Amino acid sequence: MLADGRLPTGGHTQSAGLEPAVRAGLGAGGDRLTDVAGYARDRLRTITRVEAAVAVVARHITVSAATAPRRGSRPDKWPATGDPRLSPADDATGTASRAAMSLGMVEAAWAARTPSQVMRGAARRQGRAYLRLAARVWPDVLRYLRNDTEVARPVVVGVIAGVTGLSAEQVARSVAHDDVQTVVSASLKLLPVDPADAASWLAGLHDDIERLVTDVASLTEIDKLPASGAPLLDVFAQNHADERMRLFHA
Amino acid sequence: MHDHSTRSFRLGIAGPVGTGKSSLIATVCSELSAELRLGVITNDIYTDEDARLLRSAGVLDPERIRAVETGACPHTAIRDDVTPNLIAVEDLERDFAPLDVVLVESGGDNLTATFSPALVDAQVFVLDVAGGGDVARKGGPGIARADLLVVNKTDLAPYVGVDVEQMVTDAEAARDGKPVLALSRNDPASVAQLKEWVLSMTNVVRSGEHTPVDPGPVAPHTHVDEDGQLITHTHAHAH
To answer: Where does the signal peptide begin and end (chain B) (predicted)?
Structure first.
């Protein structure tokens, strides 16, 4: 379900940065359409790699909390997180509240690796949409994150993966696939692309997606999160926020 | 969580491109902004064209008019995945609490686009005489089952060779008695009727007596069943 673009989380409003890139010249107005595949590959190596890694670590934290041995500690032993987006310490052993604190740290680590505040804003808005849906479909997510708050999408996706039993590989693959799918789908709206070509680009990126999965699936520590970025895409995203004629939110 | 005390009456405005959805909203705002606390969400092909038009019309505090991108999918934004619109409505209700009515304008789509009951409490479907006198007869979910059908720009009828009375009669026949309003912003009597409808609908929704009606994405239609019999029916949900 997470990998399905029809999931009602506002995916149709997203282009994974393709619209501002096209505006900056990607695709050369339709003369160089394979730029789209190259763009998706560049994201897999940079921005999407970070997001997949963040989702993997968020999943690890959630799974660890769910399987932690009960120590019988009193709930008030664990301090409140101080972050209104994270669920309060209301569990008997404090494991969920500890996990919520760790998730707050993952979110902060993601934010530190996402220098564009426009991109951070878009990812948090998407995270909010995922959280709203999760509250209805996978309500266990609310043990860790508070409903309808703006938490970065990869963190929310990681927590959903944790409570639904997805493996680290599956969640990394889902994030990577979703990003490529968002790019190629948006290309149909932005450039004169044949839909079968778009599907070929997605198939052609299979190895790149699997390489990403292999690289990030074993991560468990926040300090080991990759910090690869794409400064030009950050600049495009920043410009997009001031652009009047937008089809896509980001 | 959303605070239910700030919940407004959410009214959707749908209809094909160019039938006058934005100017209908401008009319509602200028007629009712003294009586009701209003907010507007627009969906547009390119972000904020309609929002800008409404802001520049000066009928409402520009801060209360917000645009939502639809990724070139105006139909999806009001029907299959209302999440971005719903978040925008709730944020507007929170930021300007309490609002009486939030008007949600669909990006102009085709005759099959109607609002999901998950997004709005009631909806207006807008046609215009310039689109052709036969459109109302052709029907469609919005024409047949929206809470109000507006036949707009009646002042243009003589210039486009459309018989307004006939168009309204066709529409009434397609709607099983639900209201049809022949509207022109140059006709004060019709504007007064529109105002009255919005006010009375607001009161009905507030009183809790209104149950959102889903016009459904599919009009009543006919096909041949397994036994070769011709059957006509409607679907409660999408195919």
So the answer is: none
Interface size, chain A vs chain B, as Cβ–Cβ contacts under 8 Å = 61
User: Which pLDDT does position A125 carry in this prediction?
Assistant: 94
Q: Is the pLDDT of residue A78 over 50?
A: no
CA distance A85 to A224: 24
Rounded average pLDDT over A213-222: 98
Token pair for A166: 């997805």
8 Å CB contact of B72 and A247: yes
Q: Domain spanning A33-221+229-241: which CATH class is it, in words?
A: mainly alpha
Q: Please indicate whether, in this complex, the C-beta atoms of A12 and B77 are within 8 angstroms of each other.
A: yes
Chain A's closest residue to B78, CA to CA, is A10
Annotated binding residues of B, as ranges?
15-22
Give the residues of chain B that fall short of pLDDT 50. Answer: 1-3, 218-223, 232-239
* Contact check, Cβ <8 Å, A189/B71: yes
* Type and span of the H or E element at B66: strand B65-69
User: How is chain A split into domains, by residue range?
Assistant: 33-221+229-241
The answer to whether the pTM exceeds 0.80 is: yes
Q: Which domains does chain B have, with CATH numbers?
A: 4-233 (3.40.50.300)
pLDDT at A29: 81
Q: Provide the token pair at B156.
A: 């243009």
Q: How far does Cα B40 stand from its chain's mean position?
A: 12
pLDDT for the residue numbered A186? 95
